Amino acid sequence: MSYRIGEEKLEVYYQVSLELVRKCGPLFLEGFQKPKTDYEVKSAFYDLVTVYDKQIEATLTDGLLKTFPESKIIGEEAMANAKTPPELTDAPTWIIDPIDGTNNYVRKIPHCCISVGLAINKELVLGIVYNPSANELYSAWQGHGAYLNGQPIEVSNAKKINQALVCYEISLIVVSKGRDKNVKRLYKLASSATGTRSFGCAALTLCYIAAGRCDAYHVENLKPWDLAGGAVILREAGGRVYHTSGARFDVMKPDCVCTSSEELAKSVIQLIEGADQISGYTFK
Amino acid sequence: MAASKSQIEELYDFIYPLAVRAGEILLEGYQNAGKAVALKDGEFYNVVTAYDNQIEEFLVEKILARYPDHKFIGEEDTHKNDNVTKELTDAPTWIIDPIDGTSNFIKQIPHVSVSIGLSIKKQIVLGVVNNPAQNKLYTAKLGQGAFCNGKPIQVSSCEHLNDANVAYEVCLLHAPKIRNKHIKRIYHVGSNARRLLAYSAVVDSLCMVAAGNLDAFHIEDMYPWDCAAGYLLIREAGGVVTHPYGGPFDIMKPDLICAGTETLRAEIEHLIRKADQEKHVGGE
User: Fold this and answer.
1) In which pathway does it act (chain B) (predicted)?
2) Alpha-carbon distance A65 to A71, whole Å?
């Protein structure tokens, strides 16, 4: 069965979710501003969670299901103990990361945010990314542009890699599987770009491209909730979101290349292909 | 003999309001420059240079009016001296970076600072850093602790790289002559760190170590004005700063590892030495 969602219904989804996310701001800041924020380690030593992640997710989930009982939820913390990967159906599905950048959050580094994406018929149609620590609320819904604190935002006009500020999750080098791949790709991209950053928060990085602050981003092995909200915002700002291979982006397996323009996406994809051909590394 | 406490106090009281004003000038540029997304490459440089010069000239003019015999070492100052950095003498010498993080400045990425260090008899006695984008003014006087917005700051107590947030200047991969050195170091440090982050802002990264947001930072191939103020902030916040191979820090050739603890610093030094012994990266 396919869901037919009209423009008016979509706007209701937008207004209600926007208000819910905004209401989580004070709770988010409570944890961010605490002198010391306690955390637990999840599946790996680099994977952290706080009580605020859980409380914010519960607030969002309860609020959304109360107003939209027909919808489904894919949330980071709800999925934390799941034995099977989440499945995306045609039903309206909220894809939630209560705190993207938890590692930054516990250390009071202002690159952390609440991220909410909505998919209907397996297509992403709405995104909200809120960083209370920088007082930045990014939002977008399909066909209506992207906004930062209510003001329209647009990607940069960077089309060449040597003009581009590229973002990369260097931390992924810590994972031994894929380490060489990440080092080679970083090497290739950073050698060619005018600048390279690593902020440790995927959702915000997509929003920084949407706002024209950065121009390109490549990341793999993340989760749907890391990318869902930001991907809509970036597209509505005029940017491009592809699978790493250049194929269509799949939010449920979100290996991606995200850029300000089509031309830049092609360049990044070519550089990645070149990186993957590099042999002769002796790091082991 | 080093500067007296009362002399340091007088110089601090003098420079503090100037650092505040310099931050206001920087913030004005930060907020306006971001609007010029369509600027051509050359024009970006012109905008940055204009603010760089304005801030440096403001500071130099005020300092010379009060202390006509003081000396200066800075990025724009060096540029005016045919790109030859002056020698550091015993004379009171202000080591100034009017805008650290110029590529962030142009893009409204909030890692941007005015950095002012003061050396007397070749010892750094004052460090003042203003990051107006994050509303953070860091201050340190020799022997009297480090502060952010008037509140004491302290480095983290992290002792193991597995638990550490580490920053690295990944943009250095853009420079062919030093690319291989840095990719090997990134590989080894990144393989063990919980998070490897990159902000392209040396001054702000040093301040983040002083404040305990980051646990460590390694930088090489940078300049005295990038490190003078931040060095003192870290020392006064209880951290350690050494040459990458463990020797004394030299402000005029400021290659460094800084960390909240000696144990963590030593672990990073070990990995850097190991990286430097590796063969060059293959391919290309």
Assistant:
1) Polyol metabolism; myo-inositol biosynthesis; myo-inositol from D-glucose 6-phosphate: step 2/2
2) 7
